[in-house]
């Protein structure tokens, strides 16, 4: 599902700027690999996560007790942005149960030309593949290290998820999806946000979630990060950063 103009253009442009700012902060990390551990204490990410428009979308799907499980910028440079092999997100995730929904937030237009996400409709009804059932791929060439073998995919059924700046697409953890290499002269920047109800348990030790709305569930011992504190030179200024000092 696509929701147009889910966030305002100012916030979407700040998202784009954050990727470029992080690129200067972490010059040895490719922009497709700005993972959760780098983002969970970024004040801008917490600012975006508290956007009521996004939380209202999620509350309609998973209820009023909402946490962030994971955040990941998949930003593809012009001319050499890496492809993402066909996969199901849930194959990677340490969640019990697999009660999670993803938002893909567009920080630039995402088009066929700059390698937008592609999905295979109907595959959200398939079983999750185990990592052992997938093939290893070279992370020098691909964003992820595992992929479903191309022989198991009918690419004629693939649908391109084209988004404008500020749009979001909503994804089930079972749906098969991927994207091509970006060989265009335009950046393709997206932020994936993975939301769980607080009743879902993260089984990976020391993993940090963010409690966003509602309350934690007694007996579900997830680890929740504290509110980020903005520090000059360490974090990107944004509209509203003063609230994080």
For the biggest β-sheet, the strand order reads 1-10-5-12-2-14-15
Which stretches are poorly predicted, pLDDT < 50 over at least 5 residues?
none
**Can you tell me the overall shape?**
globular
What is the average per-residue confidence, as pLDDT, rounded to a whole number?
96
Pairing-aware structural class of the strands and helices? alpha+beta
Share of helical residues: 10-25%
Number of helices: 4
What fraction of residues sit in β-strands?
Answer: 25-35%
Over all CA atoms, what is the radius of gyration?
17 Å
> Would you report the number of β strands?
15
**Main CATH class:** Mainly Beta
Fourth-level CATH superfamily: q2cbj1_9rhob like domain
Largest sheet features: 7 strands, mixed
Total domain modules: 1
Order of helices and strands: EHHHHEEEEEEEEEEEEEE
Under the CATH scheme, the architecture is Sandwich
CATH fold annotation: Jelly Rolls
Distance between the termini: 36 Å
Could you explain how this protein is built, in words?
This protein has one domain (2-244): Jelly Rolls. Helices cover 16% and strands 26% of the residues. The chain contains four helices and 15 strands. The chain is globular.
């Amino acid at each position: 599902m696509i929701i147009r103009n889910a966030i305002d253009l100012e916030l979407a442009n700040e998202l784009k700027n954050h990727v470029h700012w992080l690129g200067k902060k972490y010059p040895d990390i490719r922009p497709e690999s700005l993972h959760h551990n780098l983002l969970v204490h970024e004040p801008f990410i917490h600012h975006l996560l508290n956007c009521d428009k996004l939380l209202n979308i999620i509350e309609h799907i998973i209820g009023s007790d909402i946490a962030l499980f994971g955040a990941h910028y998949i930003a593809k440079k012009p001319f050499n942005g890496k492809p993402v092999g066909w996969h199901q997100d849930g194959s990677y995730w340490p969640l019990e149960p697999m009660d999670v929904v993803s938002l893909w937030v567009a920080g630039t237009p995402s088009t066929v030309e700059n390698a937008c996400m592609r999905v295979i409709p109907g595959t959200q009804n398939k079983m999750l593949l185990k990592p052992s059932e997938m093939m290893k791929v070279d992370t020098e060439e691909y964003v992820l290290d595992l992929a479903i073998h191309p022989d198991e995919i009918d690419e004629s059924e693939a649908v391109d998820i084209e988004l404008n700046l500020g749009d979001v697409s909503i994804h089930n953890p079972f749906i098969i999806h991927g994207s091509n290499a970006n060989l265009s002269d335009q950046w393709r920047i997206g932020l994936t946000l993975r939301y769980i109800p607080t009743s879902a348990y993260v089984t990976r030790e020391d993993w940090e979630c963010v409690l966003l709305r509602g309350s934690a569930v007694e007996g579900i011992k997830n680890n929740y990060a504290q509110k980020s504190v903005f520090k000059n030179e360490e974090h990107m200024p944004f509209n509203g950063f003063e609230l994080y000092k």
